[in-house]
Amino acid sequence: MSDCSSKSIYRFVSAKPEDISWFCQMEKMCHCDPWSRQELVDELRKAAINRSRIWIIKSHERPVGYIAFRLLPDELYVLKLSIHPEFRRKGLGKRLIDEAAAFARRRRLTRIILDVWIENAGAIAFYITLGFYSQSPPHKQYKYLVMQLPLRQRSIQN
Hints:
Blueprint: E1 10-14, H1 20-30, H2 37-48, E2 52-59, E3 62-71, E4 75-83, H3 92-106, E5 111-117, H4 121-129, E6 144-150
Parallel strand pairs: 4-5
Antiparallel strand pairs: 1-2, 2-3, 3-4, 5-6
């Protein structure tokens, strides 16, 4: 994981157990179906044994967003991507995806996949601008769209 830039006020850190209360607040603020405290604890435990990662992006030491993902045999599966409402539209979501893509490429993974609620038009538009696409219609029972970003390209589109 890298620093966002030497001139940037933002930096990435790996999540720690002491971040759980902040995660619970972010989940309630940003998601219609938030993870429970126990789900967050479980995901941090998986990160500790190398199956998952949770990275926080901080501004002046204040956590303002995060990405949680799992490493699968050939792909990186994004579980959650959240940016605090006060910090949206500043390129932080893209920075988190860029960092995850670089991480996946170093491990020779072929794509990033994620699920997005079909009602979340803003998120769908955001992922499309990064080069994500869906090859199938939305899952009718669960109302989500599976999107993917092939990692053959050198970098994510701007």
